[in-house]
Structure formats: structure tokens, C-alpha cells
Automatic annotation (TrEMBL):
Lineage: Bacteria, Thermotogati, Deinococcota, Deinococci, Deinococcales
Cofactors: FMN
Name listed for the protein in its UniProt record: Lactate 2-monooxygenase
Residue numbers binding FMN: P103, I104, G105, Q154, T182, K294, S316, D348, S349, G350, V351, R352, G371, R372
Transmembrane as UniProt keyword: no
GO MF, any single term: monooxygenase activity
Record keywords, A-Z: Flavoprotein, FMN, Monooxygenase, Oxidoreductase
Organism expressing this protein natively: Deinococcus aerius
């Protein structure tokens, strides 16, 4: 066969089509809508609601997708190349692609291997994985599974500063390349899908593995906490939840009473509504690791972050899970990039396809975080499902570059976008 060029896109396309000749279909749907619906069919209603749901009437989730619809790409002709360079520079290192896996909590809701399967998939595909504070597997286990592959740690700053500092020390010890401080979850958003089902996974011991494995948090379990003002009746559902909680405790060497105390303590301390800019400065003193602030949407916050000595920003609205009616994250991206100066700006929220990655980079993002799609892949086929989602997104991104006439990811810019007057036309 004549060599007409290769690259991730052509390689992935060929793989899928050749296997299709033998009657083999992809385990994970390629189209974003079909991917989500396949995960819905596989998961329990409560688990799907936790992963897929958003805040309030989910206007922000729709705004994220609508923002991508409004941005239009314009290709140039006869300037392409046989292969595209997808690499980007970030935090002093070269990444093979501009894609990272976003931190997602309670991944055991999608698959029993949870974060461990995602860590293996990320390492196999050469994509950095951002470990979540609300992980289902301790960061040390995921780091061991990734070998030398890059990983970052996403930090929720609760009311116990010593637990927060312990998390930072552990992230340093397990080779995290940066601390990603999430700013948009100082309170848990109003999420009707979860509320309608009365389902908060943390009360069942899910998604708190970082805490259950933390020496400082475990030392706090001897401190009694007040009982809830209203005690729920002993229904069969509550008995099952208690059994799940006890089983989770056994996995971490905790008695049923200690596990109940752990779940109660976590629920009482994991958010901090009064988190302030001075805390960012304190974090800067606690670690030499680069610090990225996740959840930036306002240009003034970008400027203040630069003054506080952080190393990068992530434009994000938490995938629409925190405030109903919030600005679409992509709509906020250009102004934050302009205000950030020399700080690298990453992007998160609403990314579903490879062309979405191209649009975010053209608007100034240095790299892009992928969230819900890989969780759906995890639900469908574990580690292999996550790998397929990564492969599909990067394949489309590579082909999009080639069809745009762009030779390298770093070359994407405003010149690849239609003017706003054209982009907003239906």
C-alpha cells in the first residue's frame, strides 16, 4: 500500500474499519450521545445520575455544549502534512498530546476497578491523569499503576488544614507533577438528580479512599461527632447501606463504628465555604510543586492568581455540577486567557470530541481536560473502555488538525476560527 501518511487519526480509523470487516464492532460507542446512553443502560439509576447529573435545571451543562456549538472552525487548503505534531509544552515538560483526564470522584460508581483502571488506561495511552480527592482508590495505588507516567493531584480543601497538608505531602511523595486546587466546590451544588434519589455516595463510604488511607484523617476517628438531629428509620435500604459501609471499612482495616465515624467526619469537614486567596498563598508555602487553580471563570480572578504566584489556571465550571445558570466555560476562556498573562491556561467542561479540543486550543487553552466521556467508557468496558474513549478523542483531534491544514497542536489559534458574526449563525 502506498504510504499516504499516518497519525493517530488514520491509525484508529483503520483499526476500527478493519475489525469491522470481520464483524467486530467497537465496545464503546464513538458518538458522544450514544456513549452516554450506553452507559445509562449499563449503570444503576443512582450511579448514572451521580456521573451525568448537573446543578439545578442543568442550564449550565447545556450552556457548556452550546458554547462549543457557537464556535466554528475554518480550514485552510493545500497546506496540510502527512503527520501532525500533537505535543504541547506544560509546566516545563513536553506532553505527547494536549489531553489530560480530569479528576472525577466516586469512580467506583462506574466500575469496580475505579481509579485504578483509569490510571492504567491513562499510562497506556500516554495521557496524564489528575487524581481526585474524592477517589475510590488511594493515590499511592494509582501512582504505582502508572509507573513513570505523569499524574497530578486535585485537592479539595476542607476544614481540617492538617488533613489538607497531609494530602499535599502524599501527592509529593507519589510523584504528582502539580497540585490542582479546585475552587468551585467550597459547597456541594444543588443536584436534583441525586436529591430525587436521596443518594449521596459518600455516606456509603464511596469516594473517600484518600481520607480512609490518610494517617491524619484516621487519627481523627477517635474524636466523637454529634449524632444527626433526625435518625432515619431502620429500613431494608438503610440496612443494605450499612452493610456496604461496613464492607468498605474492612477494606481499610476499620471497624464498623470507625467507618461510620469516618463517613460522618468526612461529610462534616470536606467542604470549606470561607476558602480565600490567603489560603492559596499558604498552599504556595506548603509545597514546591506547581499549583494550578481549577474553576477560574472571571478575568479578575486570573489576574489575582498571577499575583499570588500560582503556575497555571484551569477554566472550568465543574462540568455544570455546581451553579445552575452559570456562564459556559468556553465562553469564559478567551477573557481569562487574555488576563492570565504568561500563565498557562487549561480548559475543562463540556469537552466531548476531538474537534472540541481543537476549538479550546484555538481559543487559547494550552491543554484540555476530558471528564464524563471517559467515565462512560469506564462503565462500559473498564480500562479498555477508557482507552477507547481516549483513542477516539485523540484520533478525531488529529484528523481535525489535518483537515484544518494545521501541522501542530501548538499552531492552533484565532486564525482557525470563524469571526463571531459567522459563528453565531444557525
Amino acid at each position: 500500500m502506498t504510504n499516504i501518511g499516518s497519525g493517530r487519526g488514520r491509525t484508529r480509523q483503520t483499526q476500527v474499519y478493519v475489525r469491522g470487516m470481520g464483524g467486530e464492532r467497537p465496545r464503546v460507542p464513538v458518538a458522544p450521545e450514544r456513549l452516554q446512553e450506553a452507559a445509562r443502560a449499563k449503570l444503576s439509576p443512582a450511579d448514572f445520575a451521580y456521573i451525568a447529573g448537573g446543578a439545578g435545571a442543568e442550564r449550565t451543562m447545556r450552556a457548556n455544549l452550546a458554547a462549543f456549538e457557537r464556535v466554528r472552525l475554518i480550514p485552510r487548503r493545500l497546506v496540510g502534512s502527512r503527520e501532525r505534531d500533537l505535543s504541547v509544552e506544560l509546566l516545563g515538560r513536553t506532553l505527547p498530546t494536549p489531553l489530560l483526564l480530569a479528576p472525577i470522584g466516586v469512580l467506583e460508581s462506574a466500575h469496580p476497578e475505579a481509579d485504578l483502571a483509569v490510571a492504567r488506561a491513562a499510562a497506556a495511552e500516554g495521557v496524564p491523569f489528575i487524581f481526585s480527592s474524592q477517589a475510590s482508590v488511594p493515590m499511592e495505588g494509582c501512582a504505582a499503576a502508572m509507573g513513570e507516567s505523569p499524574r497530578l493531584f486535585q485537592l479539595y480543601w476542607g476544614t481540617d488544614d492538617e488533613v489538607t497538608r497531609s494530602f499535599v505531602r502524599r501527592a509529593e511523595a507519589c510523584g504528582a507533577a502539580a497540585i490542582v486546587l479546585t475552587l468551585d466546590t467550597t459547597l456541594l451544588g444543588w443536584r436534583p438528580r441525586d436529591l430525587d434519589l436521596g443518594h449521596l455516595p459518600f455516606l456509603r463510604g464511596r469516594g473517600i479512599a484518600q481520607y480512609l488511607s490518610d494517617p491524619v484523617f484516621r487519627s481523627r476517628l477517635e474524636i466523637p461527632l454529634p449524632a444527626p438531629a433526625v435518625q432515619p428509620p431502620r429500613t431494608p435500604a438503610l440496612i443494605r447501606a450499612g452493610s456496604e459501609l461496613a464492607a468498605k471499612g474492612r477494606a481499610f482495616g476499620l471497624s464498623p463504628s470507625q467507618m461510620r465515624a469516618a463517613a460522618a467526619r468526612f461529610t462534616a469537614t470536606y467542604t470549606r465555604p470561607d476558602l480565600g486567596w490567603d489560603d492559596v498563598s499558604r498552599l504556595r508555602k506548603w509545597t514546591r510543586l506547581p499549583i494550578l487553580l481549577k474553576g477560574i471563570l472571571h478575568p479578575d480572578d486570573a489576574r489575582e492568581a498571577a499575583r499570588r504566584g500560582v503556575d497555571g489556571l484551569i477554566v472550568s465550571n465543574h462540568g455544570g455540577r455546581q451553579i445552575d445558570g452559570e456562564i459556559g466555560a468556553l465562553d469564559a476562556l478567551p477573557a481569562v486567557v487574555a488576563a492570565a498573562g504568561d500563565l498557562p491556561v487549561l480548559f475543562d467542561s463540556g469537552v466531548r470530541t476531538g474537534s472540541d479540543v481543537a476549538k479550546a486550543l484555538a481559543l487559547g487553552a494550552r491543554a484540555v481536560l476530558l471528564g464524563r466521556p471517559y467515565a462512560y467508557g469506564l462503565a462500559l468496558a473498564g480500562e479498555a473502555g477508557v482507552r477507547e474513549v481516549i483513542q477516539n478523542v485523540l484520533a478525531e483531534f488529529d484528523l481535525t488538525l489535518g483537515l484544518l491544514g494545521v501541522r501542530a497542536a501548538r499552531d492552533l489559534g484565532p486564525g482557525n476560527l470563524a469571526p463571531p458574526s459567522l459563528s453565531t449563525q444557525p
